[in-house]
Structures are given as C-alpha cells and as structure tokens.
Amino acid sequence: MTMKRPRGLLARLLMPCCLLATAFAGGPLSVGGPNNGIPGQAFVWNPAAMPIQYRVDAGPMASTPAGQVVISNASGLARVQSMFGNWQQAPHSAIQYQYAGQIAFANGTPLGDIITIADYNSALGLCQAATENPIIFDATGAIVAALGLPPDIIGFASPCSLDPKTGFILSAFATLNGQFQDGIDAYPNFELSPSQFDEAITHELGHFSGLAHSQINDSIFSVGCTVDQLAGLPLMFPFLVCQSRSDMGLPILSPDDRAWIARLYPAQDFSASYGTIKGNILFSDGQSPVQGANVIARDVNNPVRIAVSAVSGYRFTGNPGQSVTGDNTGGSSHGSRDATLIGYYEIPVPPGTYTVEVESIDPGFQGGSGIGPLDPPIPLPGQDEFWHADESAFDDPTVSDPITVNAGQTVDQIDIILNQTQPRFDKYEDPGAWLAIPEVLRKSISLSTGVPA
After folding, report:
1. Of 43, 48, 52, nearest in space to 174 by CA
2. Is 79's pLDDT higher than 90?
3. Are 56 and 80 within 8 A, CB to CB?
4. How open is the CA angle 74-80-84, to the nearest 5 degrees?
C-alpha cells in the first residue's frame, strides 16, 4: 500500500497492484483460495521461523535533488529498526523482526545504493525469488517517479512471494520515499515531520507483515483530528489524515492495529487477553449474506477511542469467477469459496462490553487504498445500523444492545439484518430478461392501451 497526501495533509497508503492486489481488510492482507494457501485462512509469516530477516538499502534515506545527503544511511537504518519495533512491541503478539545487513545478491555481493529503476528491479527480483526482504530507500523520489506514481506517494510495501502449499508469506519488501524528508516543502516536493513519516512507513511495514487496511472513525474527515478520534483511528487507515499519533501523546498503534497483529501472530497469552465477537451481515430477507460491509465493535465506555473492526466476507473471495465470458472461469486465486463465509465476520477484542455496528466502506477507498475483498466497495442502503437482540428488517437502526466479552470467550451469532434492502429472488421467480415480449402479453398490452400489437 502506498501512503499518499492528496486531501490537504492527507496521505494515501497503497498496495502495489503488480505484486499483491488482493486486500481482505479489517485484518489480513491476503487470504488463501483454491490451490493457493489454505482457503479462507490468512497468509502470515511462519511463526516457527521468527524473527523475519530484513535487509536495508546501502544508500541514504533522504537526499536533496542536488544529491546532498539529508538523512544518512545509519540514521535511516535506526529509524527503520524503530518502525519495525512498533509492531514487535505490540502486546500479546509473537511477531519478531531482525536486521540482517545490506541488501545483497544470492552470492553475497552487496547490491549497493539503490538509485535507478534498474537497481530497484534488481532488489525487487530478490524479493520475488524469496531470497531477500528488502527495505529500499528512494532518497530523492526518483524511483517513485520512474514507476509512474504520483509525487505524493510516501511509501509502499507488500508481500511479493507466498507459499501456495503452506499459506506462509515467503518474502516482502518496502519502499520509502525520502523526498518527504529532504527539507523542501513546495509542490511537487512535499514534506512531512519525521514522526509523521515514520508512522506512515510503520503503516507500510504493517502490509509487509500481512495486515490490510482498516476503517474506523472515518468521520475524522468531517469532524477533524481530535485526540479521541485519532486515538481510535487505525494506523492501518488508508490515508494519513492527521498529525502524528506520537505528537499527540498517543501510542503508535491503535486498539485495532494491536488486536489484529496479535490475532495473526498470537503470543501464548493471546487467549488470556482477547475474546472474539462474530456473526453475519444479512440482507433484509434475513438469509442472504452481505459481503463487503464494515463491522465495528466499540467499547461502550470509550467508543471513539477503543474500537476494532472487520469486513464481512473478508475470508471469502472477491471474485469467485464465472465461465460465461470464457475469460474468468477460475476467478481469483485468493479467498475461500465456502458460501457460509460470504457475510461472515469475526472481530478480536480486549475483554469488555461492546456495541456492534455496520457501515459502508468509504467509496474513495479503492485500488491500492482499498478495504475488504470488493473493489470498488459497494455502498449499503439506508443508514449505519447497530446490532440489538431483536434484529429485523424493520427495526430502529440506532438502537443497540451491549455485548460483554470475556478473555478467551467467543460471542457468536451477532447477526445484523440490514434495513431497506431489496428482497432476494425466491425459488419461483425467473430472474432472466425477455429478449422479446411474449405474444400473450403483447395482446394484453394492445387491449389495455388500444395500441395495435
């Protein structure tokens, strides 16, 4: 995903489509599908092979367009190690990382300072061959420009090799656009504070680790960056919207970030520290599942600051395929084909009492900034809706009932029936379209209107 800066301060975070175009967010970046990993299960790094070994570019992290070094290699390396540390220090998570030296070829020859697109392709080739996990310093933004990306891209990262048998991530990379740290802040050469930049790249290292985007507190676009809103805003939100979390006295990772990195890489104390809320999102018939809805569990005592999300159907494919056109028979290799997962969600939460609500994914979150398995996202009819015990297609969507979750407990069947959706076809209906009006109906039309058939 790439972090970008479109709307004022806004910085978008992307996932390079050429490497891993599937985002199953509100949690894992990619989910196994037919003959590709374990269907319905997240691709993660092998927990038995920790720490994840990464290598770093030999050049400076940031330089001016004239080539003057602004952030040295040593300083850049220290910052990268700190960024990885943000994830490694997440409570109840067992993920670990280790610096393994400069990026080098298989024979041990160092790749050197990555300056040109040819250098970049060499580093990326090592990642695609699963021999390196390179962290690339694009010191002047020249590589971002050579890739045809806009200048407001702060960085991007992705796994680039997945084991189709085991479901493990084999390699990943990240690219940092040093132009944001060169001391110049005049279009098209944007600038961020060091803490903003480091948090943006920490976001990218979340993708490196197998995490996708999350949507919580997207009202921040309209209400602004209050401390409470920012506290609950995931670091894995698709855009850099506000000042840095650390400058506001907040932890780098939000509750959503901490919950999902621990869920994907659980430490021994995970089950003693988290419970689970799960259920299905359904259309108004109360039976047909809804894929692509954003589901949020909010702590009743602190709903803005403490919230964790998932996307309905995140374990199901976004493209099951069809043979009618002859060019999409198998569909995507990612995501399960188990129909019981189409509207299914599960949310890891710290022990507490929660409400659960469902909302549409922001229509602007598409492509590399996408959330969930559907791209573009599909808007839900009606308003946002809370779960309560007497769910129906005609209930008051603002009424909620509390859900208490203890450590190690799973609270199931928290199903939300959406209001105001179209009913599904029943078994007696013909969903096909007429190519010509049947003769009996043509005569009926003629008699009723007086128009000759």
Report:
1. 52
2. yes
3. yes
4. 145
